[in-house]
Design a protein that fits this description.
The structure holds two protein chains of two kinds. Chain A is of the alpha/beta class. Chain A contains 22 helices and ten strands. Chain A has four domains: 4-94, Alpha-helical ferredoxin (Fumarate Reductase Iron-sulfur Protein, Chain B, domain 2, Orthogonal Bundle); 98-150, no CATH class; 157-285, 3-Layer(aba) Sandwich (Rossmann fold), CATH 3.40.50; 298-407. In chain A, helix 11 crosses helix 22 (397-407) and helix 14 (250-264) packs across helix 17. By secondary structure, chain B is an alpha+beta fold. The chains are: A alpha/beta, B alpha+beta. Chains A and B meet through helix 3 and helix 4 of A and helix 2 of B.
Chain lengths: 414, 464
């Protein structure tokens, strides 16, 4: 463990203000759920009053890492440093379960193996019973008969979009960081990004060597694996001469833009400055470059934690949606949908409560479609609606824009 | 961590109580792992003492059963809401049971026609304010922790807040209480007949009983709020202006005073436009109808002008208003720009004595290597005296000496050692400065009547 978390812990004045925003605390009301509780556990670890136990691991894992607490903290505690240290400590002291370890250490860094594993998965899932609206039951939780996740794509985004569509005089040349969920499941989001940007006269390269951003392994405290992945991604993206890097995944954007600064050090700063969420990029560089005919569809927007609370991005996706649809805001648009990695698996009951809040506020908004900028949230929210047989669709905001641009008759590549 | 050393007999008692609690209240409501206990070992004072057991009751029956068991085995018990208190009220000083009431968080009913609401103690104050606002009603007490502190904690500490001048403090809005006493019996207070037990229990800091239902008084929600900021070249002018506003029969919703040291800490924050010449600041909220505000605002502006106020600015938009108050709310953390440690004393003096007490505080400080920032609710004489010091040797002791002297001056001027934070263990050493022996004794006798075994929040309020 590095030393700076030990100092960061002392900055907490124990005022309790993090209780106002913590989505987990909102459900449990238990001090061990909220940042102040976890900080006091870190403090006790630092002072050698406790050691790593199953109980401690459960408390550490009961964090959504949404970083809302950082935005309200009057003492400016960098909670991310503390929770990362705790996660790393859990991994170092208690080990990482074998299966995730194999995946993080040997499969994620090797695209061919990852492809193969999921390919086998996609073959197997064809024989799975009970697909509903394109969603299937989540493999590990299938027997709980509760959870619905989308089917794996037959061909990954990286493969499908292997060749860059050359534009004559492109305004800019950007790279797309796909991220795993978009690469393997939501290939159409990647296609929409490329299509929309091409229509704005922006050339999109999808560097083939790119790997997972590293969030799943760092969430499990496996920073060694995350570092390995970051090194490869750095090399891959630096080898292309790109004006910018965009991603349609809120978590991947946060990871490669911000977490890599920690993993890779200041040498990443120059690249980090060029990394954008897709809506952020469009609003910054292309807001006057496109015509749309708004869809005759009521669309609302869900703020992914890693965009809203980590990066403060809330207006840009809404502006894009306002130009492409009959936009309507929902109340509590920034409440967590409950989706996200290990938390969803370990604290499934809490996940469901958060999801229920989300689904209810989407329904109250009267929207036909809910758009968001994170495939993780899409998966989670779609799961909520699939379970309810609701007619509300879940999609990425870029796909709404794509439809509105086609609707508006903007030629491909001008 | 301060570990509570126990003899074998006590360990035995706690073990028996724990088994009994698990049997009666239920396994899922009783926590005893060290990891869980650490999470309930502190409050907003940063003190830390490990409890032996944490109980998280779900209803009055759970509360009653827990208290019965605690009383039977003579295990100390400490009520806890959000754990945001500033005087140590929820810290389990002598080990025992931390009673986490956060899960009793139902709003039982809101009666718009009777202007009352009944809630459980774990309801967050802001949530109560928001819910009654839906009926155009208003629960005025507004401590700056309202967004996370619980109504139960507010009642226990008799919390104040920035609206105190016009609307009073928590005590003024508590109509009735359902209380569980240490023997497990449930009482209801609030009738007009007989002694006013509601007032006795409000501000009792968990030393007498545990609230399980709280009925609050509501008032109609003011239609409009308008904000004004006025700058002054010295603090006496600002204090004069505040007096003059009130002399004109105007009671602002809030009347906040910031001294030069506070302003220095705030420099650079948005919403404040403060050159070097600004030595004091008044932030004023007026509320009421459009007409009443239109009448009052010029009077307030004039009062400030007559007292040499300058750059008197009325917030035109909601954003401007929010910026001004955001600056006010950032005072507490911003003070750490001055020094790394803070002792925040929420002293209270008669309004006419504010100038005097600030002068005396200046005199106490003199040229000692320590910083004092004063700000607060000047309208009701409640000033936060913040003694700021660094890690250098001797600084902490010096700060303590200064606090001691300040408290003596406060009492000498007819003031109170705690305006709104309660006594807890942080201020218990000053209790007898303010409370004469006979009165102190009467209070102790009340305490031993309700809690003969002394299990309720021991170590708080009374030191002897």
């Amino acid at each position: 463990m590095s030393t700076d978390w030990k100092e960061e812990v002392s900055k907490c004045s124990k005022c309790g203000k993090c209780q106002t925003v913590c989505p987990v605390f909102l459900e449990t009301g238990d001090e061990s759920s909220v940042s102040r509780g976890k900080i006091s556990l870190a403090e006790a670890l630092r002072d050698k009053e406790i050691v790593y136990t199953d109980k401690l691991r459960d408390h550490v894992y009961s964090c959504k890492k949404c970083m809302r607490c950082r935005t309200v903290c009057p003492s400016d505690v960098d909670y991310e440093v503390i929770i990362s240290a705790l996660l790393r400590g859990v991994a170092d002291e208690m080990g990482i379960p074998l299966l995730p370890k194999i995946i993080f250490r040997y499969i994620l860094p090797r695209r061919i193996l990852f492809d193969l594993m999921l390919k086998v998965g996609s073959k197997i899932q064809r024989f799975m019973p009970g697909k509903r609206r394109g969603q299937m039951r989540h493999l590990p939780l299938m027997f709980m008969g509760k959870r619905w996740i989308p089917t794996l794509a037959k061909k990954t985004a990286l493969k499908r979009l292997r060749t860059t569509r050359k534009l004559k005089n492109p305004k800019m040349r950007v790279g797309l960081f796909t991220g795993c969920l978009i690469n393997y499941i939501y290939v159409d989001i990647a296609e929409a990004v490329v299509d929309v940007l091409n229509r704005m006269n922006i050339e999109v390269v999808i560097p083939q060597g790119q790997l997972c951003c590293g969030t799943p392994s760092s969430t499990m405290g496996d920073h060694k694996s995350s570092k390995k992945l970051a090194d490869v991604n750095k090399q891959v993206f630096e080898s292309h001469n790109l004006d910018a890097i965009v991603s349609a995944c809120a978590t991947c954007t946060k990871s490669i833009k911000l977490d890599y600064l920690r993993t890779l050090g200041p040498s990443w700063q120059k690249m980090s400055d060029k990394i954008y969420d897709i809506s952020e990029f469009i609003e910054k560089y292309c807001s006057d470059d496109y015509k749309t005919k708004p869809l005759d569809e009521k669309v609302t927007y869900h703020d992914p934690c890693h965009l809203m609370w980590v990066r403060g991005i809330t207006d840009q996706p809404r502006n894009v949606l306002k130009k492409s649809s009959d936009f309507v805001d929902m109340d509590m648009a920034g409440s967590c949908c409950g989706g996200g990695g290990i938390f969803t698996i370990i604290h499934y009951d809490l996940t469901l409560k958060m999801l229920e809040r989300k689904v209810n506020s989407i329904e109250r908004s009267g929207a036909d479609t809910v758009a968001t900028n994170c495939p993780g949230c899409i998966m989670q929210i779609a799961d909520g609606f699939a379970g309810k047989d609701s007619k509300i669709k879940t999609t990425h905001s870029i796909q709404i824009l794509q439809k509105a641009m086609i609707n508006g008759g903007v030629d491909k590549g001008k | 961590m301060k570990l509570f050393t126990k003899n074998k007999k006590e360990v035995n008692k706690h073990q028996k109580a724990l088994n009994e609690l698990i049997r009666v209240v239920g396994k899922e409501r009783v926590l005893s792992s060290v990891e869980d206990r650490i999470c309930y070992s502190y409050d907003g004072t940063k003190q830390k003492v490990l409890p032996d057991i944490v109980v998280r009751p779900g209803d009055t029956t759970d509360v009653s059963n827990t208290l019965k068991i605690a009383n039977q085995y003579e295990v100390p018990i400490y009520a806890r809401g959000a754990g945001s208190g500033l005087t140590g009220g929820a810290v389990p000083l002598k080990g025992g049971i931390v009673f986490d009431l956060k899960n009793m968080n139902r709003i039982i009913e809101i009666c718009p026609e009777d202007f009352v609401a009944t809630v459980e103690p774990g309801v967050v104050t802001k949530q109560l304010q928001d819910e009654v606002a839906k009926f155009d009603l208003f629960y005025p007490p507004d401590p700056s922790s309202a967004a996370f502190s619980t109504i139960g904690g507010n009642v226990a500490e008799c919390a104040g807040g920035i609206t105190g001048l016009k609307y009073g403090v928590t005590r003024d809005y508590i109509l009735a209480l359902e209380i569980v006493l240490p023997d497990g019996s449930v009482i209801n207070t609030g009738g007009k007949t007989g002694y006013d037990l509601t007032r006795l229990f409000t501000g009792s800091e968990g030393t007498l009983g545990i609230f399980t239902k709280i009925t609050v008084k509501l008032i109609p929600k003011p239609e409009k709020i308008r904000t004004l900021a006025a700058h002054f070249r010295n603090k006496d002018d600002a204090i004069d202006a505040a007096d003059r506003i009130i002399d004109n029969n105007i009671l602002p919703r809030t009347l906040e005073f910031l001294d030069q040291m506070t302003i220095n800490a705030l420099r650079g924050h948005t919403g404040t436009d403060m050159g070097e010449d600004v030595k004091a600041l008044l932030l004023i909220d007026l509320d009421g109808t459009e007409e009443s505000i239109n009448y009052e605002m010029p009077v307030v502006e004039n009062a400030c002008k007559e007292c040499n106020g300058f750059r008197i600015k009325v917030a035109e938009t909601a954003q401007e208003r929010e910026a001004i108050w955001a600056a006010r709310r950032s005072i507490s953390p911003a003070l750490y720009n001055i020094a790394s440690h803070k002792i925040n004393e929420d002293i209270c003096v008669p309004r006419s004595k504010i100038k005097e007490i600030l002068q005396r505080v200046d005199r106490i400080k003199e040229d000692q290597p320590i910083y004092i920032a004063n700000f607060g609710h000047i309208g009701d004489g409640n000033i936060h005296v913040n003694i700021m010091y660094n890690d250098d040797p001797g600084q902490e002791e010096l700060a303590e000496i200064i606090v001691n002297k300040v408290m003596k001056e406060v009492v000498a001027l007819g003031g109170s050692i705690s305006g709104e934070h309660g006594i807890g263990n942080k201020k218990s050493q000053f209790m007898e400065l303010e409370i004469p022996p006979h009165e102190y004794d009467i209070m102790k006798r009340f305490k031993s009547y309700f809690d003969p075994k002394g299990i309720m929040n021991p170590g708080k309020m009374f030191i002897r």
